[in-house]
Amino acid sequence: MQKTPKTLHFNIITIFPNFFDSIFNHGVLKRALKNQLIDISITNVRDFSKNKYKQIDDTPFGGGPGMVLMPEPLFKAIEQKKTVHSYVTYLSPQGKPLTQAKAKKLASKKEIILICGRYEGIDQRVIDQYVDEEISIGDYILSGGEIAAAVLIEAVSRFIPGVLGNEESKTNETFSQSIGLGFPQYTKPREIDGMEVPAVLLSGNHKKIEEWRQKKALEKTRKVRPDLLKKL
Predict the structure, then answer these.
(1) Integer Cα distance of 22 and 3 in angstroms
(2) Which of 21, 113, 149, 151 could be joined to 88 by an S-S link, Cβ 3.0–4.6 Å?
(3) What is the 3-state secondary structure (H, E, C) of 128-191?
């Protein structure tokens, strides 16, 4: 009997639900949703505000610039979506880096709740009470966690069997990851403006092609991300 593919459920909690209107309507994620390999729900934090003005932020205790997302609306939003299977993440610059290994591990979950921060962040009591893990997509500042949530969903979804239409793509991604950064890619025509495709790629010798790709990937890693070499 053929095993029914599992569906990984993503629950996004945000103050800007319309941000995601078009992001999931293209490419890999669109197919994954259509084939019910993933499911994405979006919860508007403002729906849980007790204030008639739908206020969800306030000034920080202790002073300082900016605003902080209030705990009560987030408490209620999380409680509505949370089940015994939920893994609650907060997209935060203070979080653990999102790597291929982290994405693969998250793909084994049944449900992932993604809390998108804004302004100066969220009340610490939300993190203490509900968050299983803080995750960062890089050492830089964004206006909010919505972009980070979209990045995480695609990175994680690619590890779900059946999401990638061409399984060879997954093999190549794994191969590239095992030897560092990706290798150069070429397609038709063979020559343009005096620039030719490397002869080894036209040779049909798959062993030599793999050796060439490994060499080029390592060369790029040494140049761009030498810190990765110790992990290979």
Answers:
(1) 31
(2) 113
(3) HHHCCEEEECCCCCCCECHHHHHHHHHHHHCCCCCCCCCHHHHHHHHHHHHHCCCCCCCCCCCE
Contact between 222 and 207 (Cβ < 8 Å): no
Host H or E run for residue 219: helix 206-224
167 burial type by CB count under 10 A (0-12 exposed, 13-18 middle, 19+ buried): exposed
- The answer to whether the CB of 87 falls within 8 A of the CB of 106 is yes
The structural domains of the chain, with segments of one domain joined by +, span 8-157, 167-231
For tokens 């089940």, what's the residue?
83
Whether 94 contacts 136, CB under 8 Å: yes
* Strand 133-136 to 86-97 pairing: parallel
pTM of this prediction? 0.86
pLDDT in tens, 163-176: 997 654 555 554 44
Of 124, 162, 132, nearest to 37 (Cα)?
162
CATH 2.60.40.10 fits 8-157, yes or no: no
Which CATH fold would you assign to the domain 167-231?
Answer: Trp Operon Repressor; Chain A (1.10.1270)
Q: What does the pLDDT look like over 1-52, one tens digit per residue?
A: 445 568 999 999 999 999 999 999 999 999 999 999 999 999 999 999 988 8
12: enclosing H helix or E strand: strand 8-14
